[in-house]
UniProtKB/TrEMBL annotation:
Main localization of the protein described in the UniProt heading: membrane
Membrane-crossing residue ranges in chain numbering: 27-46, 58-79, 85-102
Membrane association type: Multi-pass membrane protein
PANTHER family noted in UniProt: GUANIDINIUM EXPORTER, SMR FAMILY PROTON-DEPENDENT DRUG EFFLUX TRANSPORTER SUGE
GO-annotated cellular components: plasma membrane
SUPFAM superfamilies: Multidrug resistance efflux transporter EmrE (SSF103481)
Listed GO MF terms: transmembrane transporter activity
Stated name of the protein: Guanidinium exporter
GO terms for biological process, alphabetical: xenobiotic detoxification by transmembrane export across the plasma membrane
Amino acid sequence: MAWIQLVIAGFLEIVWAYFMKKSAGFTLLVPSTITMITMAASFVLLSLAMRSLPLGTAYTIWTGIGAVGAFVVGVVLLGESASPLRILAALLIIAGIVLMKVSSPSA
């Protein structure tokens, strides 16, 4: 269950990062509200996952999902650059996430 909570928390991090960008510095009500709600939900799920997962594993995977997901959303929805170097950086983050998962105890 902890891994499911962690993955959902990571996906919610992608959502709140996107809507934070769309909030124009928290000047738009709807994107700002979505940011705050999904941010809170992401933190709650992360904290629940940390009950049984090691801190380093949980936090690294959570931020990794958010970082790679935000990169993909930025490229696909916001027209940001997908240069070979940025893609390589995202792939290295994914490799780190996979290594953290396989080196961690199951919960």
